[in-house]
Amino acid sequence: MTGEHQNKDAKNPIWSYIVIAFFGLLFAKILLDVLLVGF
Question: What does the alpha-carbon distance between residue 37 and residue 31 come to, in Å, rounded to a whole number?
């Protein structure tokens, strides 16, 4: 079971990068909004 799961993850490394990039951009946008409103 674990071997199968690792295989699946190895086949789709792009999705993890997309999720990381999405949350990174979301965090950056919130940070910019806070800075713009704060100052």
Answer: 10
